[in-house]
Amino acid sequence: MFKLARHSKSKIANWWWTVDKVTFVLALFLIFTGMMLVLSASPSAAHRDRLYDEFSFIKKQGVFIAAGLVLMVGFSMQSLRTIRRLAVFGFLCALGGVFLTYLVGDATKGAARWIKFAGFSLQPSEFIKPVFIVMTAWLLDANKRMEDFPGMSLAVMLYLITALPVFGQPDLGMTILISGVWALQMVWAGIPVWLILTLFSSGLILVTGSYFFLAHVRDRIDKFLAAENEIGSQIQKSM
Fold first, then answer.
1. 33 lies in the same domain as 90
2. Which of 12, 140, 154, 163 has the smallest number of CB atoms closer than 10 Å to its CB?
3. Residues 100 and 210 in one domain
4. Higher pLDDT residue, 203 or 37?
5. Rounded CA gap, 128 and 199, in Å?
6. Which one, of 101, 213, 116, lies nearest residue 168 by Cα?
């Protein structure tokens, strides 16, 4: 039987004894659940799109899952310094991609979230999400370890730099997701809950004001919710 000794200095052994196994198992469970959902929907979706192979979607999902697992394990083997550097580099690239969607983004369903690159369609906001979380955690940790380091203030600035461009696409779902994770990180770091509620109230006012006073925001949100669009009809059916 293959065993990894605690005293082993191999990279795989070090990874196995230091990785958060609960988080790792939960991630695998989410991946498995997603595969089951895609498997159940793949035949009907393939029939709707008139595809010859009714399992084409699950096969494509399997390729991305394999690549994702390799990346997940690979990143988890890196040192904290390497992860921080990769997070900064990834954040700058993803943020640049978000701004690029304003210029050359593929506008569909009332929002310009996608850009075409090397024959693929990429959604930069999906890439900015994980690196934003890592950078926020880094800043909040430094805020606790270094007495004069303005980690909280920098975390707020990082949130605004990230959330506002994503909201302007508009990608409301991703904005809410980023905001929710950031809020939990801030509460965990010790910020008062009332301050978080104040910030979210301000955000709600900003969203409402943007809808009424910024024509392009109102136009995109209206298109997103319009009944004649596919997404709008789905919203009506769900209600």
1. no
2. 12
3. yes
4. 37
5. 21
6. 101
